[in-house]
Every structure is written in C-alpha cells, then in structure tokens.
What we know:
nine-stranded mixed sheet, 13 helices
Amino acid sequence: MQPPTVSVILPTYNRASTLRRAITSVLSQDTTAPLELIVVDDNSTDGTADVVAAIQDERLHYIRRTTNGGASAARNAGIMAARGRYIAFIDSDDEWLPFKLEKQLAALDAAGTDIGMVVCGLIRWDKRQAVYLPPPDRRRQRERNLKREIIRQNFALTSCWLVRREFFDRVGPFDEQLKCLVDWEWLLRFCLRYDLCLIEEPLLMVYASPDSISSRELDYIESLEKMLYKHASALVHDRRSLSNLHYVLGKKYCLYRSMREGRLHLLQAIRLYPLDLRVIAALLLSLLGMRLFTLVWRSVRHSKGFVA
C-alpha cells in the first residue's frame, strides 16, 4: 500500500448509527490521491467498534481512546497518527459528497504553496430544512475578504477543511479546553497568520443532531467568551471583527442566559464599531426583556432561513 497523500481524521463518540455513512463517504471518494481514514473512538459505549470492524478496507485505521476527552482531544490524537501531506476532517454524523477531496486538492494546487488550506460550502439539514452555507448573498464581500468573514462569523466547519500538514503544525493543535467552537477558534488562529481559499460549491452534507455540541447554547456562550478574550489583543487593530464577536456573544447571552451580560457585550460592540445597525437594533430590542427579545429574534431568523 502506497503512503497516503491525505489523512482524514474522524472523531466519534456514540454515533454508531451514522458512522458507516460518514466512513463510506470518505472511502468512496472519486480521487486519484491515496488516502488514509483514521477513526478515533473517544471511548464510545455503543457499537462503534463493531461498525468499524465490519468495514474491510486497508485504508481504514481505528484508534480507541481509554478515556472520553471530547472531540478536540480525539482530533488531536488522530493528527498525531496521521502520515499524509494534507489533513482533512469529517464528523461522524456528516457526509462528504463524491468529488469533495479531488476538487479541494485541485484548488490548493492551483492556489500555490502560500495558501495553507481550502474550505468548501455545505448543505446543512436541520428540522427538515436545508440551509446553504456560506450565505450566497454575501459572496462579493467574501471574495474581497474571506478571512475577515470567517473571523467574524465562521461558516467553515472542520468537515469542510483540507489543510497542508505543515500549516497545521505551525498553527498548533485544537484547544481542548473549549467545549465547542473549536473549529472557529483554530481558524481564527490560522487567519491571523496565513491565507486560505474557498470553493463556494457545497461538497458536504451536515445533519444537525439534537445532541450535537453546537446545540448546547450555554456551552456555546462559555466557549465564545473564552475565545474572545483569548484573541482580543490579536484583534485589537480589527475593531469591526472584534465588535462582531461581542455582538454574537451579546446576542447569545440575551437569548439564553442574562440580559444584563448581553447588553454589556452589545454596548462594547457599539463602542468598537458604532455603525453596525444590527448591534444597535439588538441593544434596543434587549430593553424589551428576554421573552420578547427571543420571540422577535427567532421570528426574524426563521423568516430569513437562518439556522444558528
């Protein structure tokens, strides 16, 4: 068996019901590049090991952790075992579309060696609703400054990535202290130093799960707050991006935790960048109380087809 060009890391925990679909979508990629798929079982208690064992493919490698350390620890363990010149990821409830890997390899080859990674669009299924990310209505803005848009509101989940190994090593491992938003925090570190490119075409299907990390809003708030203060000094010269992070955190506080804390972050967002009408509207709306804030915000979000 020839050495892999691409190492694909698949962290999983108690997702035996969707794991085969994710594995098959990687192993059936229409690509000439040799690959290896490293499944890192984060100490599952269901039939995960049996699902992997039933798939006979020499490209598939299985690592079982003896303790449950979370998705970041599992991904980091997979990266340590990876041998490829490129690193890709897939979550155990996601599905790559057939030409994802080939198109991303071609995009990186065309972009040149100064570009450290390529991300792609995705289709997210949530409550029978399909949402395309990144939002097509901001395409021109994204073409002008892709990195800034990702820093302000990441749309590129780890399953969208293909990273040159040397760039991954320079940026460092995933932050195992964060309960969620780990992909956003790593991308923020990357974007502060290096360049990336985007394939707008959706090459990935994401199926939102009730128990997925992103659905736990209090964990989201805690992780976003840690991420914000961890990188505030690095973003001090990008006041608009820093303002947007305070806006997102303030909005989440108002929706799920504390109107007072939410207003403080919204006020800080306005101080940093007073021209953002979204922040001003959110601050005024917060004066109506959490119940009305939640009702109005969710109505607006639903009317625009948002899932976030």
